[in-house]
């Protein structure tokens, strides 16, 4: 079956959106324009029986996963602290749905999957090499170029000077004022690892895993260390076997020790982690960078607003009333905590039990689709499945899922998963 004319560019649109994440405003413009074009294509093709765009099953799963994310946001806005603003945010997030259809359609045939998944692998590779150059030379070439363009256009840098001085992590192309490189690379790494393994087998996987792993360690984000460890365990098990995979983790532990001795960022994170060995709650909270205090506040919000929470992105407004230790300065600096830093607590505190039920229903439907898919469909969806699974892994700390950046990344992975698992047959 030949793809409908005009949808062959869908993979390029998805890749442009991801590649432009270092420039959030432009990336958002690409998303909105792609959503509008997708809606136009939908009107002329889908509603005239156009199953060529996307299989009915993929269309349904993509829509359901979006609703599992968006409906709790809408319901939580009804009695949020700033209800009018919350409703406006919920209405604005509807822009994601047609773009997710476009993303699912991008991987709905063999050519689209190949272009999209290899393109994501290339982006991960380029960002990894750029970060390695920053580790050696002290400056990210890609961020330096973006910052030069920004200053030429607006006469202002991407990052304020004071934030650059305070930065103490490897940030790569995202820049010192946006220290999310570790989480982003960890979540997208399955695309690179599976692509390299198919072409260069085990040796290519090991070399690629080592390069990405060094960068993720140097970013100093312990959450991304856990995410990446899960990626390595799942993607390397069948490829290398148990003994070789264990050797990979042993080598990784050696690298971590070496970096702990030579890198200030890694050493500080390791030292902070050892505070968890102390018997008192203050030591545990210090090891978690104040997360224990934040999680206590999240549980308070869930108890005080059990049905629909305090409102998506309302955590910062409700924090003062639920702060378990208001007289002590917070470990994260001045100001309230902005979100719960843990997916289950974020959902419970901001969208309540209603939101958690819908998220669990979405997860159950995603798992059901995987369970009943044939082996060929599972194989072609593995990179997207693993990327989505480790991103929402509940036994980890997280960025805010109801923020524009991390919410957009998570929804994109959900669409790539649905589109690749339930792709159109015989294409």
UniProtKB/TrEMBL annotation:
Residue ranges of domain O-antigen ligase-related in the record: 208-360
Keyword Lipid biosynthesis in record: no
Location in the cell: Membrane
InterPro entries, per database record: O-antigen_ligase-rel_domated, WaaL-like
Coiled coil, from the record: none
Tree of life domain: Bacteria
Keywords assigned by UniProt, alphabetized: Ligase, Membrane, Transmembrane, Transmembrane helix
Keyword hit for Transferase: no
GO cellular component annotations of the record: membrane
TM segment ranges: 12-39, 115-137, 203-233, 245-264, 352-370, 405-423
A molecular-function term among this protein's GO annotations: ligase activity
Membrane topology: Multi-pass membrane protein
Matches recorded under PANTHER family: EXOQ-LIKE PROTEIN (PTHR37422:SF21), TEICHURONIC ACID BIOSYNTHESIS PROTEIN TUAE (PTHR37422)
Protein name per UniProt: O-antigen ligase family protein
